[in-house]
Amino acid sequence: MKKLLYIIILLALPFGKVFAVDYNASAFGCVSDGQTNNTRSIQAAIDMISAKGGGTLNFYVGRYLTGGLELKSNVTINLHEGAILVASPGFYDFIQKAGKRYFIYAEKQENIKIIGKGVILGQAALVAPNIQNQVNKGFVKESVDSLLPTLVGFSHCQQITLDGIMLRDASGDVLDLDHCSQVTLKNQLIKAHASPKGAGLRLAASTEVSLDSMYVDVAGKALVKDASSKISRINKSVTPNGKPIK
C-alpha cells in the first residue's frame, strides 16, 4: 500500500522537479588545482545538464580555472564553500558578444541559478596586462578600457537567481543585465576596484529585479540603470560607506 501511494505521489508531481539531478563537477573531468584549464569540461557539463532537462552542477573546495562559460536554461551552478571559479587571464579566453566580453554569460535562457558560498574571481590584475599586450602589438585596435571583460552577464534572460555567491576582482563591470526579467540577487558580496568606471550592477531594459542583503564595493558606481529598468525591491543593500544602493 505504501509503495502504491509513493508511486501516485511521484506521478502527481511535475516531471522536472521529481527528476532534478545533482552532478559533481569532478565527474566531468574538472580539476580544482588552479592550473588546469577546465573550460571544455565545465561547458560540456552545463550543456548536458540543460539538454537532459536541468539539474545542479556542484563544485567543491578548490580553484577551478576556466575560460568563458555560457550558462543554459534550467541549470544551477552550486559553488560550495571553498570553491572558486577562476577566470583564465588570456584575452581570447573570454566570451565575445556584440562587441563586449564576458567571463560568465547567458543569452535567451531561463531558470538559471548560481548559488552557494563560493567565489567567482575575475583575476583583473592578470587580465588587464594581457589586453594591453594585445593592443601594443596591434592585434586589437580598441582601447584597453573598452576591452575589459564583464564578470557575469545576462542578455534577454528570465528567472535568474544569484544567491550567496561572492563576485570579486572583475576587470570591468561586475554584473550586467540586459533585457532581463524576474531577477533575484541576494546575500552577496560584490567587490572590484580594478576599473575606475566598473559598475557593481548595470541594468539595461531589465525589470522585476530584486536586491536583498547586497554589499557592493566597487571603484565605479554600485548601480547603473537606464530609465526603462525597474527594480521591484531593494532591502538591506549597501555600499561600504553604509549608504543604501538606489
TrEMBL record:
GO terms for biological process: carbohydrate metabolic process. GO terms for molecular function: polygalacturonase activity. Pfam families: Glyco_hydro_28. Residues 1-20 form the signal peptide. InterPro entries: GH28_Enzymes, Glyco_hydro_28, Pectin_lyas_fold, Pectin_lyase_fold/virulence. Keywords: Glycosidase, Hydrolase, Signal. The keyword Hydrolase applies. Belongs to the glycosyl hydrolase 28 family. PANTHER family: PECTIN LYASE-RELATED, PLASMIN AND FIBRONECTIN-BINDING PROTEIN A. This is Pectate lyase superfamily protein domain-containing protein. It comes from Sphingobacterium humi.
